[in-house]
């Protein structure tokens, strides 16, 4: 699914898992994905959506334990950020307010 479409359809957060750099079966697929994630983070920021809702991780197929950790990390991150403003209709998210809130905890 296109990264922006995931947010448009109501996802509160998305993470992309790619091969370790230099070890991609698709040669440069993981590098292209990293570039796309960076581009979409810029779009999210411009739209007033906290770019921390989108992350990319590089790992190998042998790193199942790390994959589980990443899923847990993202789940906690999104819980802390709360529902996407796309879902709540509350407009733009203030990244500064989110950072202040995290510092209080």
**Rounded Rg:** 15 Å
What is the topology, as strand order, of the major beta sheet? 1-2
Output mean pLDDT: 85
| N-to-C series of helices and strands | HEHEHHH
DSSP summary: helix tally: 5
**Helix vs. strand class:** mainly alpha
Largest sheet: 2 strands, parallel
Distance between the termini: 34 Å
Work out the helicity level. 40-55%
Give an overview in words.
This protein has 105 residues and is mainly alpha-helical. The protein has one domain. Helices cover 54% and strands 10% of the residues. It has five helices and two strands. It has helices at 3-8, 29-47, 64-81, 85-88, 95-104; strands at 14-18, 54-58. A two-stranded parallel ribbon has the order 1-2. Helix 2 links the parallel strand 1 and strand 2 (54-58). The longest helix is centred in the middle third of the chain and has 19 residues, at 29-47. The N and C termini lie far apart (34 Å).
List keywords for this structure.
105 residues; mainly alpha; two-stranded parallel ribbon; 5 helices; 54% helix; 10% strand
């Amino acid at each position: 699914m296109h990264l922006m479409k995931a947010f448009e359809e109501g996802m509160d957060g998305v993470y992309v898992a790619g091969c370790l750099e230099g070890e991609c079966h698709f040669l440069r697929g993981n590098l292209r994905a990293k570039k796309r994630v960076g581009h979409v983070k810029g779009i999210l920021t411009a739209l007033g959506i906290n770019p921390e809702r989108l992350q990319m991780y590089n790992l190998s197929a042998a790193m199942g334990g790390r994959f589980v950790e990443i899923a847990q990390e993202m789940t906690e991150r999104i819980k802390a950020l709360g529902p996407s403003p796309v879902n709540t209709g509350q407009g733009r998210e203030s990244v500064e307010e989110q950072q202040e809130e995290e510092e209080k905890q």
